[in-house]
Design goal:
The complex is a heterotrimer of chains A (about 100), B (about 500) and C (about 400).
Chain A lengths: L8 E6 L5 H10 L4 E8 L2 E8 L12 H24 L3 H12 L3
Helix pairs in contact in A: 1-2
Chain B lengths: L12 E2 L2 E5 L8 E5 L4 E4 L1 H8 L8 H8 L3 E2 L7 H11 L9 E5 L27 H12 L5 E7 L7 H18 L2 E7 L7 H9 L2 E6 L4 H7 L7 H16 L4 E6 L8 H10 L4 E2 L1 E2 L5 H5 L1 H4 L3 H20 L5 E2 H11 L19 E4 L4 E3 L2 H8 L8 E2 L4 H4 L3 H8 L22 H8 L10 H19 L2 H12 L14
Parallel strand pairs in B: 6-7, 6-14, 7-8, 8-9, 9-10, 10-12, 11-13
Antiparallel strand pairs in B: 1-5, 2-3, 3-4, 14-15, 15-16
Chain C lengths: L4 E3 L1 E3 L5 E6 L1 H6 L14 E5 L7 H4 L6 E4 L12 E4 L12 E4 L5 E6 L7 E3 L22 H12 L6 E5 L7 H14 L4 E5 L9 H9 L4 E6 L5 H8 L4 H14 L3 E8 L1 H4 L2 H11 L5 E6 L10 H4 L7 H13 L3 E5 L23 E2 L16 E2 L16 H5 L10
Parallel strand pairs in C: 3-4, 4-5, 5-6, 9-10, 10-11, 11-12, 12-13, 13-14, 14-15
Antiparallel strand pairs in C: 1-8, 2-6, 3-7, 7-8, 16-17
Helix pairs in contact in C: 3-4, 9-11
The chains are: A alpha+beta (about 100), B alpha/beta (about 500), C alpha/beta (about 400).
Chain lengths: ~100, ~500, ~400
């Protein structure tokens, strides 16, 4: 039994650097391994993290430091995705419209 | 330090793309996928440079990113027409309408398979057979689909127990096709225990193919599929030989259904398929429907256990192929088609928008119409909510059913939480019916979805093989992609 | 190797016109039916040889358009009909050929050669690109007269199965003329397959779609070059900014017009470096291409002065060639390799090799004398020179060829 099981940690971020929509996506994506409670207070967002063990899988419980790294990395990844999405917004729709037009619709 | 050009304004702009971290095995551990489905494996540093507009415009990777539609040059070449062409080609199935029409002609069966997805009715008695009237109506529905290419699949129970029904349906459809001139393929999924010369004559006349279940060698197959005489394997193998002798070697294909006992014998299962001379094997995990769900414990295994098994089986299978025997794994082959070509694989269970209803229709023995085989099985579990209507209603009306509406809302992966950000979405699909069955919610939560776990696991494994596999592995994968023997493949060609 | 023009002594040719060369035998047997289309006796030029010397007078009263006195013993004087005699090279013009004769020059051009594997309809010397390796450097002139000449030529050539090329310069520059020629060829020579060489740029105009569908020629292929998977590199090779975009647009229009498309790549230092990537681009974006032609470079025209940028020893690009060819082949696209000597080709690529180079262009060199493969090899361009010669030229032995998977005899 992992001696660090049952740990809890809080990561605090600034809304300017990691907007709420990014934090929510991180929580969703990591839900299989980590329970992340998101609390916002003005510009400050707290992520309350604890491990989760799903019955029937053989995934091991992440340690506190593994979880910390995973969450930070995910925050950066989803921020990058958010930036890509903002820079390219509208282009997906343009592409879909062009594709449908070309199909004679 | 070299000729690093920083192009902030006039240089290049991003096209919509997604990324995924593969593993830490290799420095090219970031998978980039474009909206077209083109991909590149790059180091993390490159991803950052790319987004920060710090790419060296004279570098080969810049040209790769441009050519594969990750970036474009404002004022330069407009890539939208060719991207639209690729997109149209990948999603072209949408315009075809339902191409796979499944006729559940009876629920009667002589097996009592524990993972059966159908509630079984006793062998004698036609109480659970499709009526002639309903069969006639269903044949009309088929031709209301615009698809030029149609597959008519007979299922059950054991469809051969209602052969007269099959005969009627084939003859009705053939008669209508005199005028329609579609390209039609008939398939009967069967244990092959009830073949007769009459049936084989008919099959020969109408070019009907057979699909059977072969779970592995005798001990495995018989353990999974109890019959009164405990000889399911022997009779199925006899049936395979009989069909081949009459209709040709490739007239019968086989697939496995894997129980937890099966997971212990990857090599034996593959060896059995080699021994029986098949050229393709389908290693399917159990679905969460029918009897499988209720007899859970003894049969059930986690998706991650399946993935471990699958990787082992695949490695063994590849070595068998390298040794000169062509035996492809069907799911791997269709994933390769999705990854490496701008075409859709044609597989209805892995597509976005979903295949159920739009690509497949199921005409049940009782005259009701369902969007997929799985949704019919939910019926057996007491859930009739996914019925589209009656076989007597015109297709246009069936497809306006609120069920289709619901499925569409939850059936476009690019719009689903989790999937919309996922780099694998161009190669994957949406399955609201499976999510409904497993999670009680057609949208489903990706982190707890075994559909997602399976496809992510297998797709990332394929990418790792494409990236790391040696020439002999590449040649086997290419032989599956092109359906050619290794003899005709002296080189695996350019690998991206 | 045989040239397409030679000088004659020409008498009584008041204006430039075409003639079909016909022997008395063929005249008796078929008359104007020797020609595929609408031909009259005035279009025929009777071929007279030494064997006809005793009948020369009576033969020359026949109501044909002219006479070609091939035999040395024949007398060209005292006749008022158009007469050709004393050819500089007597091998150039033969029965079945169609020639162009005029008062302005003693040069007689062969526009159609019976039995040749590379007859073509020449559309124009004009071009809207200026490729670094252009083998037919463009001229800025109004040469619309080629259209009418080609329409007449179609009427006079032999019926029967063969492939006719249509090229230039850039054939699409005379849009209506080209469409008229396609329609006329379909009507007069429907059995002949046509192969148009075009850069495709002007086909970005969507009005071509309906026009081509309307013509509906069933045996027409468009050979369109694409030199890179990106605009900068392609535009550099063809020396025309925007060409890549225009050609891509043209290719999609051709596809919409249900045309057969062949993508051509001239192999040079500029194109071989990203050849596998180009193959990937073609497969992803132009999967409807019926054929991909990978071609050795011809040292003629503008290629000579651009040697530094273009020349790469084929021995040094065999790996790229192999990666690209197999990539495409595995994915179901048909690939052919042309215009390279067989000995420099990676043996693994022999199944893609076609013995091409038009029969009036190719030759063999000293090193080829003991080679067992000359029967299957394309040889060298007539324009070949030492600095354009691979270091790997060497005679192949029977042993070398034994495991070759059929290098098929087929013309580009």
């Amino acid at each position: 039994m992992d001696s660090t099981m049952g740990w809890k940690q809080t990561i605090t971020v600034d809304d300017d650097a990691y907007p709420l929509r990014v934090v929510q996506r991180v929580a969703y994506a990591l839900a299989g391994n980590l329970s992340i409670l998101v609390r916002q207070d003005g510009k400050r967002i707290d992520l309350e993290i604890s491990p989760v063990l799903i019955a029937g899988t053989d995934a091991s419980i992440p340690s506190l430091s593994e979880a910390h790294k995973l969450v930070l990395r995910s925050l950066n990844d989803f921020t990058l995705r958010d930036q890509i999405q903002r820079e390219t917004s509208g282009l997906r729709e343009l592409l879909a419209a062009a594709a449908l037009r070309g199909a004679g619709i | 330090m070299g000729s690093l050009l920083i192009v902030k304004d006039a240089g290049y702009r991003l096209l919509p793309f997604r990324f995924l971290r593969l593993d830490d095995v290799n420095d090219k551990n970031i998978l980039l996928t474009a909206e077209t489905g083109e991909y590149l494996l790059v180091p993390e540093t490159l991803l950052n440079q790319l987004v920060r507009k710090e790419l060296d415009v004279s570098s080969p990777i810049y040209k790769d990113l441009l050519a594969r539609h990750f970036i474009y040059e404002p004022g330069g070449h407009n890539p939208i027409p060719e991207m639209a062409a690729q997109y149209r080609s990948r999603k072209g199935f949408l315009l075809d309408g339902p191409a796979l029409h499944i006729f559940v002609v009876t629920l009667r069966c002589n097996h009592t398979c524990q993972y059966c997805q159908v509630s079984r009715a006793p062998q004698g008695g036609a109480g659970h057979d499709m009526s002639a009237e309903d069969a006639r109506h269903a044949a009309n529905r088929v031709f209301e689909s615009p698809s030029q290419v149609l597959t008519i699949e007979f299922q059950g129970g054991e469809p051969l127990l209602a052969f007269d029904c099959i005969r009627q349906i084939v003859e009705t459809i053939e008669a209508k096709n005199e005028l329609e001139q579609r390209s039609i393929q008939y398939v009967i999924t069967s244990t092959l225990h009830h073949l007769s010369d009459t049936i084989l004559d008919f099959a020969e006349q109408h070019n009907i193919q057979f699909s059977t279940s072969l779970d592995g060698p005798a001990f495995l197959h018989n353990a999974n599929r109890p019959t009164p005489n405990k000889n399911a394997y022997e009779r199925t193998v006899e049936g395979i030989h009989r069909v081949r002798a009459r209709l040709g070697h490739d007239a019968v294909s086989a697939l496995t259904t894997l129980t937890s006992r099966s997971l212990e014998h990857p090599e034996a299962i593959i060896d059995e398929y080699v021994a029986q001379g098949f050229n393709s094997i389908s290693l399917r995990p159990l679905s969460p429907y029918g009897f499988a769900k209720s007899s859970a414990r003894r049969l059930d295994y986690s998706m991650s256990e399946f993935i471990v098994f699958y990787k082992k089986a695949l490695a063994y299978l590849i070595s068998v192929n390298s040794g000169g025997t062509f035996l492809s794994e069907s799911y791997a082959s269709l994933l390769l088609t999705n990854i490496l070509t701008p075409f859709s694989s044609g597989y209805v269970d892995l597509r976005s928008p979903l295949g159920a209803g739009l690509g497949t229709l199921v005409y049940n023995y009782d005259g009701d119409v369902y969007p997929s085989d799985e949704s019919r099985m939910l019926l057996e579990m007491g859930e009739s909510g996914l019925k589209l209507g009656s076989v007597r209603q015109p297709l246009a009306e069936l497809l306006r059913s609120p069920v289709i509406e619901l499925l569409l809302t939850c059936g476009i992966a690019e719009a689903l939480p989790g999937c919309s950000d996922c780099a694998l979405v161009p190669y994957c699909g949406a399955d609201p019916i499976e999510h409904f069955a497993r999670q009680g919610d057609p949208v489903g939560h990706r982190a707890f979805s075994s559909f997602c776990e399976k496809n992510m696991g297998l797709l990332t494994h394929m990418f790792a093989m494409l990236r790391d596999g040696d020439e002999s592995i590449q040649k086997v994968l290419m032989s599956w992609l092109s359906r050619r023997s290794l003899n005709d493949l002296p080189s695996a060609g350019y690998r991206t | 190797m045989l040239r397409l023009d030679t000088q004659f002594t020409i008498k009584n040719a008041p204006q430039r016109r075409l003639f079909k060369i016909i022997t008395p035998q063929e005249l008796i047997e078929k008359g104007v039916a020797t020609c595929a289309g609408n031909a009259g006796f005035e279009d025929l030029m009777l071929w007279l040889d030494d064997i006809h010397v005793t009948n020369q007078h009576s033969l020359m009263t026949l109501p044909v358009g002219g006479f070609l006195l091939a035999g040395k013993s024949l007398n060209a004087n005292h006749f008022t009909a158009t007469t050709l005699s004393t050819p500089k090279d007597p091998q150039v013009v033969k029965p079945g050929d169609v020639i162009s004769v005029g008062p302005d020059s003693s040069m007689v051009r062969v526009l159609y050669r019976r039995g040749s594997n590379s007859n073509l309809l020449f559309m124009t010397d004009r071009c809207n690109s200026l490729c670094l390796m252009c083998s037919q450097p463009p001229k800025d002139i109004d040469d619309r007269w080629h259209i009418d000449e080609n329409l007449k030529l179609i009427d006079l050539i032999d019926p029967g199965i063969e492939q006719l090329g249509i090229s230039g310069g850039e054939p699409t520059l005379y849009k209506d003329g080209l469409l008229a020629i396609l329609a006329h060829a379909k009507s007069v020579l429907p059995e002949k397959s046509l192969h148009i060489l075009s850069n495709g740029r002007l086909l970005r105009d969507p009005s071509w779609i309906e026009a081509l569908k309307h013509v509906g020629h069933k045996k027409l292929t468009w050979g369109i070059p694409l030199y890179a998977d990106n605009a900068a590199d392609h535009d550099h090779v063809v020396q025309a900014p925007g060409a890549f975009s225009e050609t891509m647009a043209g290719l999609y229009n051709l596809h919409r017009a249900e045309q057969h498309i062949e993508i051509r790549v001239v192999l040079s230092k500029l194109t071989t470096i990203r050849l596998p990537e180009l193959a990937h681009f073609i497969f992803r974006n132009l999967p409807f291409a019926k054929h991909i032609a990978l071609m050795g470079i011809e040292n003629t025209g503008l290629a000579k002065k651009n040697y530094k940028e273009l020349w790469i020893d084929p021995a040094d690009y065999q790996e790229q060639l192999s990666l690209a060819a197999w990539f495409l082949d595995i994915r179901g696209l048909t690939v052919s390799i042309y215009n390279l000597p067989l000995c420099v080709l990676d043996p693994g690529l022999r199944s893609f090799y076609r013995q091409s180079i038009s029969d009036w262009k190719n030759l063999f060199i000293e090193a080829c004398h003991t080679c067992a493969a000359t029967e299957f090899c394309a040889g060298f361009f007539k324009s070949h020179s030492e600095r354009w010669q691979s270091r790997n030229i060497h005679p192949l032995s029977r042993e070398d060829l034994i495991h070759t998977q059929g290098a098929r005899y087929e013309i580009a």
